[in-house]
Automatic annotation (TrEMBL):
<dbReference type="GO" id="GO:0003700">
    <property type="term" value="F:DNA-binding transcription factor activity"/>
</dbReference>
<dbReference type="InterPro" id="IPR015424">
    <property type="entry name" value="PyrdxlP-dep_Trfase"/>
</dbReference>
<keyword id="KW-0805">Transcription regulation</keyword>
<dbReference type="GO" id="GO:0008483">
    <property type="term" value="F:transaminase activity"/>
</dbReference>
<comment type="similarity">
    <text>In the C-terminal section; belongs to the class-I pyridoxal-phosphate-dependent aminotransferase family.</text>
</comment>
<dbReference type="InterPro" id="IPR004839">
    <property type="entry name" value="Aminotransferase_I/II_large"/>
</dbReference>
<keyword id="KW-0663">Pyridoxal phosphate</keyword>
<keyword id="KW-0808">Transferase</keyword>
<dbReference type="Pfam" id="PF00392">
    <property type="entry name" value="GntR"/>
</dbReference>
<keyword id="KW-0238">DNA-binding</keyword>
<feature type="domain" description="HTH gntR-type">
    <location>
        <begin position="34"/>
        <end position="102"/>
    </location>
</feature>
<dbReference type="GO" id="GO:0030170">
    <property type="term" value="F:pyridoxal phosphate binding"/>
</dbReference>
<protein>
    <submittedName>
        <fullName>PLP-dependent aminotransferase family protein</fullName>
    </submittedName>
</protein>
<dbReference type="InterPro" id="IPR036388">
    <property type="entry name" value="WH-like_DNA-bd_sf"/>
</dbReference>
<keyword id="KW-0804">Transcription</keyword>
<dbReference type="GO" id="GO:0003677">
    <property type="term" value="F:DNA binding"/>
</dbReference>
<dbReference type="InterPro" id="IPR000524">
    <property type="entry name" value="Tscrpt_reg_HTH_GntR"/>
</dbReference>
Amino acid sequence: MAQWTSAVGAHQLARLLRSQDPRDAELTATGRRLPAYRSLADGVRLLVLEGRIPVAARLPAERELAGALGVSRTTVAAAYEALRAEGFLESRRGSGSWTAVPAGNPLPTRGLEPLPPEAGGSVIDLGCAALPAPEPWLTRAVQGAMADLPLYAHTHGDYPAGLPVLRQALADRYTARGIPTMPEQIMVTTGAMGAVAAICKLCTGPGERVAVDSPSYANILQLMRDAGARLVPVALTERLGGWDIPAWRQVMRDAAPRMAYVVADFHNPTGTLATEDQRRRMVDAARAAGTLLVVDETMTELRLDDDPEPPRPVCAFDPAGSSVITVGSASKAFWAGMRIGWVRAAPDLIRSLVAARAYSDLGSPVLEQLAIASLLESGGWEEAVAIRRDEARRNRDAIVGALRRALPDWEFTVPHGGLTLWVRTGGLSGSRIAEAGERLGVRVPSGPRFGVDGAFEGYVRLPFTVGGAVAEEAADRLANAARLVAGGHTAGVETVRTLVA
Ligand SMILES: Cc1ncc(COP(=O)(O)O)c(C=O)c1O
């Protein structure tokens, strides 16, 4: 890493160090009291690995940090020296010191390999957080689309902004949610991925900074890296507490990102739900900084518990859609196989997005658009989503129960919605667990895939896609994988980078 891209103030770092869970210290301590410099170095190292301070963040000068922590400057100097020796800090005279991850720490990129078909029967694949099609609604939706198709057969079939009937139906849903919306404010896309790809094409360029939740959805992070964006991670507060608004304000002020990408509802991978107050303050901060806020609502409809009250959508605080671009998808609420997503924004922004999208993807398939429109118009959507929620809730409760039985020292906070559980693997490497799991017939994505620069090594993500005996078997295989890792019986080779969704 040649330079720093964000900065952590002395008081902010002192606050983060003091707020560390005392159990974290046990991960590093060996029973005897550690010298002060060692505790400080371990604390900073954990903050980097947990994604609570980003990689390439400038740390405060030794004297400032010593003052904020009430320790001697020698202690801070020795801690920085230890971090440098371990690869967690880089320094250059005149530029200060900034955080790093040691060479060899698994980075989240590389190619993806789908699960080999022959492995389908025996491997429990926990890579994709997506459920099978809800029948009979899929069949009914396609039948509805077939009935409407003759109306479109005489047209050329290219609708880069989306079929008018679907744009209208989607606009009506926002209006029903309390945010008046016209069809001109909607563009239909090829999944939420297609929506974010078009937004990146229009709004970012090589070297442009994009602030993201840390952790965040792996495929979107990769899409943004591919677009040349420089990702600036902003840690979520712990235990599903939502967004850390002071940290976001600081990043927007210091890094001046062109764009920020956030998941407010049942965030992937943590399941976090941002509060209404955080939403209001995030929109204010973005508007003040001139940062475009891209809000991914892919998981919004997967509300699994009645509490807490659902907060208003983020776009309720910018109904005109000039500061907030909302992305939606049928993939989680209905079925990922439809590949239908959408964008809600101001009409002029939508026009620019349609133009930006047209050169790589002329539009989404007419039949699938008609199927979603028919579902929305017939009320079948609500029925299908209700089935989805029941299934995801059952699976969530099954995987939570199975983990508590088989792996009692793995920690997680149970989210009120979404499709994923973000699990701390009891001080073991998530990458090694993924690697051992692969051999034992359970496929899990490791934490660093959801981080920007090698953070979250101590995590895996588990989806709410299996229940009953399969959830129990998955937990047993993961417990076996954990035993292998704890016993040092893993090869230490890089895990195959399988498809994650
Ligand atoms: C937050 C988030 N955004 C986007 C996607 C991808 O959505 P789509 O299938 O609509 O492209 C997912 C899928 O897991 C997701 O969780």
